[in-house]
Amino acid sequence: xxxxxxxxxxxxxxxxxxxxxxxxxxxxxTRVHVRKRFSGSLDGESDAELLMAEGEGGRGYVASELxxxxxxxxxxxFVLQHGGVDDGEDPYTxxxxxxGTGTDELVGLKGTVVFAHxxxxxxxxxxxxxxxxx
Length: 134
Description:
By secondary structure, this protein is an all-beta fold. The protein has no helices and 8 strands.
């Protein structure tokens, strides 16, 4: 399988925060439901559930995200699991396509994902491979 790398901008159009631990002596823990709209090589929408933790000087999250749309013109759905940590100086994210979650023309999709949010905007970079893909 040949590997491809795409970068697609996205916009967040829904952000619903629900606290799941309000103990004042702990970090702030929240569950967030997020909806995104992607454009470019990844074209479609996603629903994500994030668990977030915020402390003094840092925060982190883990997420499961269901994407529906097209990847380089191939239609279907797939699930990303990703996370990130930001200490205010050196933020990073990590993630992967969950094996076996690709449907329709995205069956067999494998890959890794990195998210970025900075002065250039919000974007996803996906390095992926599909069976029979060139």
